[in-house]
């Protein structure tokens, strides 16, 4: 089932919400989850490991995403946008989602590693 759930991530830097003088960098990431399988599944949990440029790690886990536990029938998509705040101008995120089938079987789907980059020149 894992290979039948596709996850695509598009991160972007949000300079209008960042305060580079005080080392606060805000990033948005848009995620599209597509069920390419034959079973209906529900996204139950998420896990993130966020690492900044100094190697500091923040792990986040919890129920659903953005307050929802979406159910995806075959060929359905769910997309959402969320954000992360770092104290360095770049870092990376990686994680996984936990899904459940209608029969109660749970499985994990990896979220591919992606880079958060402010693309700024520090003086």
TrEMBL record:
Gene3D superfamilies: ApaG domain (2.60.40.1470). This is Co2+/Mg2+ efflux protein ApaG. InterPro entries: ApaG_domain (IPR007474), ApaG_sf (IPR036767). It comes from the Bacteria. It comes from Vitreoscilla stercoraria. Residues 1-123 form the ApaG domain.
């Amino acid at each position: 089932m894992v290979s039948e759930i596709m996850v695509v991530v598009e991160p972007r830097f949000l300079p209008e919400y960042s305060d580079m003088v005080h080392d606060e960098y805000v990033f948005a990431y848009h995620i599209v989850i597509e069920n390419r399988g034959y079973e209906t599944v529900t996204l139950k949990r998420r896990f993130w490991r966020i690492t900044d440029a100094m190697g500091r790690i923040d792990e986040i886990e919890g129920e659903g995403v953005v307050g929802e536990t979406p159910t995806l029938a075959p060929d359905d998509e769910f997309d959402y946008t969320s954000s992360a705040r770092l104290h360095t101008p770049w870092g990376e995120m990686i994680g996984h989602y936990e899904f459940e089938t209608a029969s109660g079987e749970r499985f994990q789907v990896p979220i591919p590693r992606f880079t958060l980059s402010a693309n700024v020149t520090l003086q």
